[in-house]
Amino acid sequence: MPSETDTRVYAYLVGVGVTHSIAPLMHNYIAQALGHDWKFLAKECPTVEDAVQLFRRSDFAGGVVTMPYKRTIMDHLDGLDEYAIRLGACNNVYRTADGKLRGTNTDWRGIKGCLLGASEAGRGKPAVLIGAGGAARAAIFTLYDQLECRQIYLVNRDRDEVKGLLEEAKRVYGDGLDIIYVDRIEKVQGLASPYYIVGTVPDAEPSTPDEVEVHQIIKSFLSTPQEKGVLLDMCFKPRKTRILQAGKFAIASMSLGRAWVHSLPEKLAQASKAGFKGVEIFYEDLEYLAKEKGPVNDSTLLAAAEETRAICDHCGLKVIGMQPFLFYEGLTDRAQHREKIERLKLWFAIVKVLGTDIIQIPSNFQTEGISGDLDLIVADMVEVADLGLKEEPAVRFAYENLAWGTFISTWENLWEVVRRVDRPNFGCCLDTFNIAGRVWADPASASGKTPNADAELTASIQNLVQTVDVNKLFYVQVVDAERMQSPLIEGHPFYVEGQPARMSWSRNARLFLYEQERGGYLPVVQVAEAFLKGLDFEGWVSMELFSRSMADPDSTVPGTHAQRGIKAWNRLAEELDL
Question: Which ranges form a coiled coil (predicted)?
Answer without folding.
Answer: none
